[in-house]
Amino acid sequence: MTKFKYYFILIITTFSLFSCSKNDSTEVEPIRDFSVQYATDITDIEEYLKTYTIRVVDHPGFTDDQDVTYTKITDAASQPSIWSYLNNTTFPKLLSRDVLLYDITYKVYYLVLREGVGASPCNVDGVLASYKGDYLEQTIASEVTTLTATTFEESKYPQQMLSLYSTIKGWSEIFPKFKTGSYSTNNDGTVSYNNFGAGIMFIPSGLGYYSSGSGSIPAYAPLVFSFKLYEIQRLDQDGDGVPSYLEDVDGDGYMNVFETGVLNPDDTDGDGIPNFVDVDDDADGYSTKSEINNPATGLSYPFADIPSCSGNTTDSARLKKHLDKSCH
Ligand SMILES: [Ca+2]
Ligand SMILES: [Ca+2]
Ligand SMILES: [Ca+2]
Ligand SMILES: [Ca+2]
Fold first, then answer.
1. Which ligand lies nearest to the CA atom of residue 274 in the structure?
2. I need a surface site. Which of 101, 131, 285, 300 has the fewest CB within 10 A?
3. Could you tell me the distance, in angstroms and rounded to a whole number, from the CA of residue 81 to the centre of ligand 1?
4. pLDDT reported for residue 261
5. Which ligand is the nearest neighbour of the Cα of 252?
6. How far, in Å, is the centroid of ligand 1 from the Cα of 237?
7. Domain ranges, residue 252
8. Gene3D superfamilies, per this entry (predicted)?
9. What distance in Å separates the CA atoms of residue 249 and residue 229, rounded to the nearest whole number?
10. The pLDDT value given to residue 197
11. Ligand 4 centroid distance, CA of 210 (Å)
12. 278 and 323 in contact (C-beta within 8 Å)?
């Protein structure tokens, strides 16, 4: 009898759970598998590269210089595809960068219209940039699927620096491949930019907004950004007095952030916290800020003048004391 009672309760419970989920009208789609979505995205991006052509404004000194318009190819003979610039020896030049994130290697294509002549940001610096963003999606009309690109944002006159540390991953991976230009102040106080880096990046959704989308950008949409890099701002994320780009130990322009246990070339003491966000880079118990302080002036040494443990300040290959655990 007790046994029967137990089964009865179990059946009721099971049924009520089942009917509950059945009546649930707001079903949430589980987040898609990243590798499956990436395969879809890269197919769409490559289709876009092969079926669209660009027109670039050449108007030095004016705000529309290097503006880009995209057009779907209707005449292959007169309209070169973006793909036709792949590994070109002159500009425009279509290149790609492999980005490893959560065990997936994303290929990010970027078109270099112009490299620029100034300095490159590292991947955690601030950038003053104008940009136009499009998202890609497959739309179905009359049972025909078509890849479409929709512009969601255009920022022609940048007012503020954007930190690559907090933008989408795609931006922080591609901006370091470009340089700023030169600028001059006009009589009316406005600034003219010349010879700045300009390009287009093609970002899989896993390095963009992925399942969340953003504003009018749908979930899982690959993004196409044309951009111009006007100025950079060197940031110091850990506030130790050494700008982050000078905490890039292997000098590749990227502050790597890896999971603990993975050898990170930008993490001197190997504690899993890369130097640019580690206040004690060599784990000697003394903060970097205190180690690079010049007792004669009470100020931080300029980076190039930070001495080694033995006091050497001229050997360019010396290990600076804030990275040497044997002194402080
Ligand atoms: Ca720093
Ligand atoms: Ca690095
Ligand atoms: Ca560290
Ligand atoms: Ca230290």
1. 3
2. 285
3. 43
4. 60
5. 2
6. 6
7. 238-328
8. 3.10.50.40, TSP type-3 repeat (4.10.1080.10)
9. 25
10. 98
11. 39
12. no
